[in-house]
Amino acid sequence: METIHAPITVGVTELREAPARILKRAEEEDQAVAILSHNKPAGYIVSPRMMEAMLDAIADRIAESRAESRLATLAQARRVSLDEL
Questions:
Q1: Three-state DSSP class for 32?
Q2: Per residue in 2-11, pLDDT tens?
Q3: Domain with 25 in it
Q4: pLDDT, tens digit, for every residue of 46-85?
Q5: Which of 5, 35, 39, 74 is in Cβ range 3.0-4.6 Å of 43 for a Cys bridge?
Q6: Is residue 81 part of a domain?
Q7: Which neighbouring-strand residues pair with 45?
Q8: pTM score, two decimals?
Q9: Number of folded domains in the chain?
């Protein structure tokens, strides 16, 4: 069985019948809503605030990874003055 990564679940039929209500619930509760098809996750709905937070977390991880890889090459760096730039 697949893991459902949301505290709220709705079926595809319920989403089809009342999409605005599902979107409003996701935003009001600031929770992800799992859309189930045959009791398996088919997709997720998240609030704009949650989406922004997820994108920020991804960007932070990318920046951290780049910083770590650049720190590994710090010993190869050389000092330059502003005039040399």
A1: coil
A2: 899 999 999 9
A3: 8-75
A4: 999 999 999 999 999 999 999 999 998 888 888 899 998 8
A5: 35
A6: no
A7: 33
A8: 0.74
A9: 1
